[in-house]
Amino acid sequence: MDQQKIQPPRRTAFIDIAEKFVGAGRALGLIQPARLEKDYLLEQATEAAGMDDFGDRWFEGPMDVLLDSIHAEARLNVAGDFSAMQQFHKVLVDRLWAQMWFRRHPEILSRPIKRPVVIVGPMRSGTTRMHRLLASDRRFSHMRSFETISPVPRPDFEEVLAGEKEDFRPVLAGRIMKVARLANPRTLSIHPTGPYEPEEELGLLVASMWGMKHEAQWHVPAYGRWCEGEDATPAYRYLADLLRLVGWSQQVSSIRPWILKTPQHMLDLKALLNVFPDARLIFTHRDPNAVVGSATSLAWNQTIIYSDDPDPAQMGEEWLRKTRLQVERMQEAREELSPDRYIDVQYDDMESDWRGTMERVYRFLEFDMAPAAAGMEAYLERSRSLKRHPHRYSLEEFGLSSERVQEELGDYIRRFDVPVESRAPERKRRLALGR
């Protein structure tokens, strides 16, 4: 096979332009040099917000490890360390604002989160589609994309509730998405979204400096392995508090069950169940060839924005290892669950008969699907308009093969009877549609 055809995509010219702009700004003293140092970042956030209560300081442990890993491993380019500074600053200011809201409205922390429906599956296994189908049912609560980017309302949010101001968070989300698409237009194919689209709660874990978002954005394997050895319960407790804040800001009844999902739950299912002991779980399963290929492609397309020299083979190995660990952790945690607490859903079943599959899910949830059917149809129609181009990727781009993936994840395939596409070696994993 022509080696040219199996190289992963390169970054766009927009990043080269951004690098020159930021570099010139720093040379002229118009843009400050990056200082990815914890004390400095905390000080800058405190000064910007005029507050100093960050809440539970547990997050500083993951933050220390993440910053060390960025310095030692990430090889960030100029645009990369500039955006990292912005990201850390925003997360820290949001923590300060969150504590302000908890003091101002202590009833927020009293909001119950009863029987949430949690979608648990490997990255790229159909979790987004399941989440958005359920989110189209108004009997459930869900986060929107602008809320995972900015889960904490600004200090003037009471004026928004009074109708005196516009909530700036959707505006900010729209701007961030435009920049992201300029930086890499493939993001629209990989994960179609918009400011008001239903979205996962990954940003609520990032608020504790926790989770795979960092690993899908920067090359920080030491940080990832450190997290894998830690108890994530404190991060999930803070996630729950932020979820209460989001529900309060939405002004919706706390009786409505939340629909949650993020692939991080595969690694931290025990921590999730510590915090949400009555959660109902929907496990999604997909051909590991597609899961590993698509997940690695997603991480690659993010990382090439922030680093000039990521290694595709190294990335393939890491996401194969990560997927295997997700599966192992998920299987271990569900061994302690009663079978009436969860349901398994195959990606292929959703592809061939989404309506019949969702009817089975609704029976498990003890909800009537009929009132939700029209909303689901509308979502599917909208998703077709959002996703105009298929997500193209291959295992071979990242030094992997279907034989290797199936060898590593054969137990998972057999345990959950996951359909695996038959393919000739090094050939057929060229195109995937959907998530």
Automatic annotation (TrEMBL):
Annotated signal peptide: none
SUPFAM superfamilies to which the protein is assigned, alphabetical: P-loop containing nucleoside triphosphate hydrolases
Assigned keywords, A-Z: Transferase
Presence of the UniProt keyword ATP-binding in the record: no
Top-rank taxon: Bacteria
InterPro entries per record: P-loop_NTPase, Stf3_sulfotransferase
GO molecular function: transferase activity
Keyword Transferase: yes
Entry protein name: Sulfotransferase
Organism in which the protein naturally occurs: Qipengyuania oceanensis
